[in-house]
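Appendix B. One record, verbatim.
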Amino acid sequence: MADVLCVGAHPDDVEIGMGGTVATLTARGADVLLVDLTDGEPTPYGTRERRAAEAAEAASALGCRRLTLGLPNRALFDTVDARTSLAEVIRAERPRVLFAPYPEDAHPDHAAAAAIVQAARFYAKFTKTAMSGEPHHPPRLYRYMAVHLRLVREPSFLIDVSQTLTKKLRALGAYESQFRANPANIGVLDLVERTARAWGDIARVEAAEPFFAPEPVVVPSPLDLL
């Protein structure tokens, strides 16, 4: 069972938005499962087989598990079937924390994924249902940012990824077909690193990743914020 479940529309979404946090969690012994709603194909330089191999290599670099639901890329919608498919994973894995994409995005698949995660979290607690597994409602939902818009948003909190930024970049480097092979995306990895270091400047650390909470974040004591 997973302690943390991170959902993305495509392979590489979670790595872009919170790869350093995933590596930090697994280094501390957490069981982290990445769920790709689609396999991300077709793309200009990828194939299903190549993308699957890249995604597996990226997960290995971060020390986490990975699952692909096989929903349709470029035609991802918040449907009952999509909600149910993800809810069954939530019921089986029973995570304490659920991470979802940021809901505001130019990419329709990303916006749909955000809606699917929020609905699936609710569906997962149903009792009278044909879904497999026992009811489960992850206590915490947080959103990471891996968007195609040039957004400036104030995060609810930042995670220090100074020690795991290298792992994040190594995981993203596994996606040869998406970045190095595609001339249009040559600068993406550099942009991801610069963004992490810019958030780090705000946090007064080397690198950080932003997260957004739809509900107030509750901690037992101010000392837990140190």
